[in-house]
């Protein structure tokens, strides 16, 4: 995990995003325990309350479950939840803007599809 203390993004959100990324990329698997708030706070010199606030974002989203006296664990469907969330973000950030610009340029659907295919194959 890496945190940017100069970023305008709050550290607790960075904590949530870093743990979410670790779940999505398979570093933390379903059913696996994630590091404790104490461990993260000590390793990265972050206030434990800040780490807890970030983790609680994932608990509230159903991606992590707390087991009293045991720790925090990745839920069975956490990776799929993250994928669905990212798919929506992708649409909002890129597809929606892209199609809006395509409409302004009066590109046909076929032209848009051709452009997407060209970009997709050029980058693979």
TrEMBL record:
CDD domains for the chain: WHTH_GntR
Signal sequence residues: none
Name of one Pfam family that matches: GntR
GO molecular function: DNA binding; DNA-binding transcription factor activity
Transcription keyword on record: yes
Keywords: DNA-binding, Transcription, Transcription regulation
Keyword Plastid belongs to the record: no
InterPro entries: Tscrpt_reg_HTH_GntR, WH-like_DNA-bd_sf, WH_DNA-bd_sf
Domain of life: Bacteria
Listed name of the protein: GntR family transcriptional regulator
Lineage, opening ranks: Bacteria, Bacillati, Bacillota, Bacilli, Lactobacillales
């Amino acid at each position: 995990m890496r945190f940017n203390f100069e970023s305008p993004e709050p550290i607790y959100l960075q904590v949530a995003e870093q743990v979410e990324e670790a779940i999505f990329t398979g570093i933390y698997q379903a059913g696996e325990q994630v590091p404790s708030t104490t461990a993260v706070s000590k390793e990265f010199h972050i206030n434990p309350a800040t780490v807890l606030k970030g983790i609680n974002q994932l608990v509230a989203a159903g991606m992590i479950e707390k087991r009293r006296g045991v720790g925090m664990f990745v839920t069975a469907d956490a990776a799929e939840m993250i994928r669905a969330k990212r798919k929506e973000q992708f649409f909002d950030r890129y597809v929606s803007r892209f199609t809006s610009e395509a409409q302004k340029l009066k590109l046909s659907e076929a032209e848009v599809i051709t452009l997407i295919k060209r970009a997709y194959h050029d980058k693979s």
